[in-house]
Specification:
The chain is 44% helix and 16% strand. With 234 residues, it is α+β, with helices and mostly antiparallel strands.
Length: 234
Amino acid sequence: MAAAGNLRHARFVKALSKAFEPLEAGRVDGRITPPRDYPIFVRREKGELEQLHICLGLPALPTTSRQRYKLLVLNTVLGGTMSSRLWQRIREGSGLAYSVFSSVNSFADCGFLMIYAATNPSAGDMVLRQIVEELVRLKSEPIGDKELRVAKDHLKGALMLSLESSSSRMSNLARQDIYFGRQSTNEEVLRCVEAVTTGQLQALARKLLVGERCGLAVVGRLSRFKTRRSALEL
């Protein structure tokens, strides 16, 4: 149980004890079997949609991975902000998508990197091609120092801002205790982000961005979308 805000610790613990002590403890064996990769290619025709929706996914890292901060920085560079590569190339540079971004979702046993774009049905092939090219570039070219600096500063600011509300602080306390058995200080988190190097990011990209493990879902008007599985070669 976790709580944050205007409360008295002893009083809070006493109330919880009174409420939960009568309950019998459950049993958990602690064994977790990670799910297997399922890199399918799904196409669904939906003529009523004005935009073509593209979602590309790759297996990533579980919450407790020691490389989790590297993945967060890598995602920030790729598509986590309006200064990211995907946003700047596909929306600002080419004007092909109103919405394009990437995100990381991590769980106890696994995680995934997701890339999403919404575009005109006639531009779907081009958008997907540019996404794939940016993934390849992360593997083949080191990230520049200036770009890395911008990504780190943005990520550190976002992490600190995410703890401003009582509810987010409460969730963070619970998550830290459940997954790590201890509380990480803000200073420790910032140091971990700052310690990430260009070489580490390129090595992680080469490890995670593998075409054979990539899944793709496309929904919308598909008459002009010709991309096949072979285009996802990373």
